[in-house]
Amino acid sequence: xxxxxxxxxxxxxxxxxxxxxxxxxxxxxxxxxxxxxxxxxxxxxxxxxxxxxxxxxxxxxxxxxxxxxxxxxxxxxxxxxxxxxxxxxxxxxxxxxxxxxxxxxxxxxxxxxxxxxxxxxxxxxxxxxxxxxxxxxxxxxxxxxxxxxxxxxxxxxxxxxxxxxxxxxxxxxxxxxxxxxxxxxxxxxxxxxxxxxxxxxxxxxxxxxxxxxxxxxxxxxxxxxxxxxxxxxxxxxxxxxxxxxxxxxxxxxxxxxxxxxxxxxxxxxxxxx
Length: 273
Fold this sequence. Notes:
By secondary structure, this protein is an alpha+beta fold. It has three domains: 4-56, Structural Genomics Hypothetical 15.5 Kd Protein In mrcA-pckA Intergenic Region, Chain A, CATH 3.10.290.10; 66-127 and 213-235, Pseudouridine synthase I, catalytic domain, N-terminal subdomain (Alpha-Beta Plaits); 132-210, Alpha-Beta Plaits. The chain is 18% helix and 27% strand. It is elongated. Residues 252-260 and 263-273 have low confidence and may be disordered.
């Protein structure tokens, strides 16, 4: 009998990240052969009966799905919401059980990855792997060179320094500035909090890169499977084709505020001297 940690089996079956699956076990929602599972337990999904919330886990050799979504504003990057707000799973209709990797807050936009590959989630979200994330941020005001240098060096938040790899000006006009920001750290609301602390609140925030993945011209509310090349860059695996549900790949997208202000990548405004 080949056994492995229960949270790894559940993550591979699409019940969430390993940490989320550990929480399922801690909450007493997982049974193995009719007995309550405990954190640290191992099991063999081919020979043992594993159940989550009374639903038996059906073992099949793992196949993984990888979806890139352009999350619009006003959508939660969670599997479900107790208040009935839209989530990323309302926008992506595939038959596989997938879940989002990391977070984008409710008002933020841009690239988010959805998958059922628990090992990949671990690699992309654990700090030791240091996957960079690139954002475009529309901020209020026109920061000085000194302010940008403070931003790059980092300021202290919650007793810890918050550092950024790059903070670059894309364009400035009428008291607003588009920045391109690269950061490895994944603390909640990090860009927004630092911008506010430096006196330049964020008006719009778009994630355009995550590790080797680039959002490109994918429109808000639209999604696509990762290419074989993208999957190999992330995992070294080949990319299977996801099975779509009856409805189209196109999902209704929330109209983003300030959408008219987004400069096109091919037509960057010149910096103000």
